[in-house]
Specification:
There is one protein chain. The chain has helices at about 5-15, 20-25, 35-45, 50-65, 75-85, 110-115, 135-150, 160-165, 170-185, 200-210, 230-250, 265-275, 295-305; strands at about 65-70, 100-105, 120-125, 155-160, 185-190, 215-220, 255, 290. With about 325 residues, it is an alpha/beta fold. It has one domain: Aldolase class I (TIM Barrel). The protein has an 8-stranded parallel β-sheet. Helix 5 (about 75-85) packs parallel to helix 6 and helix 11 runs parallel beside helix 12. The longest helix has 18 residues, at about 230-250. The model has no long low-confidence stretch (mean pLDDT about 95).
């Protein structure tokens, strides 16, 4: 790390000490050209890849999936079955890679931990009064600590969008810092809920705010609002992590979540990652898909490439 980068990191760390400093910095970020971002994302979405590269992309996408169930009707049996599928997505093909993580509510973490213990698959839990984020800080932190104590090694927190949109940046910053501390050794993914942030400029500001406060990942969505992950929003977030690493030397991951259902969708995102931030982020440690139905489509396309025939949607378990 250069002396300039070290100095920049030190200067940025000071921003969290003052609401005024945070506001000045965040509103001083370059504005996002919305038309340009939309056009760039659309252009990248038209790229095609050859058969060998497609096979590699499918296996990479499988390894990047955070296999997710976040329903009020979740049961111990359901999440155990999901964890077993995460370990062996295609029981008939041992060459099929495992997914990146299983993501569940805190109450379901102990049951998933029973299945994943000793495996390379991560255990993620949403926390901090997911999906609204509307709870007192002490409850959010207790939620986080309970999930980690039960076995989660990744926490997906939600920011207080009301506070952010009202310009109370210090409040949002302090909550992320406190949640990061409550995580202990667990990684923290910060959900921006971009569908509620209104503008791309706000997405850029929220991305930087989350990273300045110590987030290990920035994540688009809870999947519980009508507008979830989109290619242009993810492009803005990728540009933010790229610029943040250039300024501080610290790499932060990105997780689009919600609405990504097909192999074609996933490959569009992988192309965007490669073209925007490069191969360093083409790794499950730095890029994830928050999804439930995506995995089955990836498995169907993988079988098609391997055998020449589709296995059909009922060949794999529904999640």
């Amino acid at each position: 790390m250069t002396a300039t980068t070290t100095s920049a990191r030190s200067d940025l760390a000071e921003l969290g000490r003052s609401e005024t400093a945070l506001r000045t910095f965040l509103h001083g970020l370059p504005g996002v050209d919305q038309i340009g971002a939309d056009q760039r994302a659309a252009q990248l979405g038209t790229r095609s890849i050859k058969t060998t590269a497609k096979a590699q992309a499918i296996d990479l996408a499988i390894r990047m999936v955070d296999l997710t169930t976040l329903e009020g009707a979740d049961t111990p049996g359901k999440v155990r079955a999901l964890a077993a599928k995460a370990l062996r997505p295609d029981p008939a093909d041992p060459s099929c890679p495992h997914v990146g993580a299983v993501c569940v509510y805190p109450a379901m973490v102990p049951y998933v931990a029973e299945v994943l213990r000793g495996s390379p698959v991560h255990l993620a839990s949403v926390a901090t009064a997911f999906p609204s984020g509307q709870a007192p800080l002490e409850i959010k932190l207790a939620d986080t600590r309970a999930a980690v104590a039960a076995g989660a090694d990744e926490i997906d927190m939600v920011i207080n969008r009301g506070a952010f949109l009202a310009g109370r940046y210090q409040e949002v910053y302090d909550e992320i810092v406190a949640t990061k501390e409550a995580c202990g050794a667990a990684h923290l993914k910060v959900i921006l809920e971009t569908g509620e942030l209104v503008t791309y400029d706000n997405v850029r500001r929220a991305s930087w705010l989350a990273m300045l406060a110590g987030g290990d990942f920035i994540k688009t969505s809870t999947g519980k609002v009508p507008v979830a992950a989109t290619l242009p929003v993810t492009l803005v977030m990728l540009e933010a992590v790229r610029d943040f690493r250039a300024a501080t030397g610290r790499q932060v991951g990105v997780k689009p979540a919600g609405g990504i259902k097909t192999t074609k969708d996933a490959i569009k995102y992988l192309v965007m990652v490669n073209e925007t931030v490069g191969a360093d982020w083409l790794d499950p440690d730095w890029f994830r898909f928050g999804a439930s139905s995506l995995l089955n489509d990836l498995l169907m396309q993988r079988t098609k490439l391997t055998t020449g025939t589709y296995s059909g949607p009922d060949y794999f378990t529904l999640d």
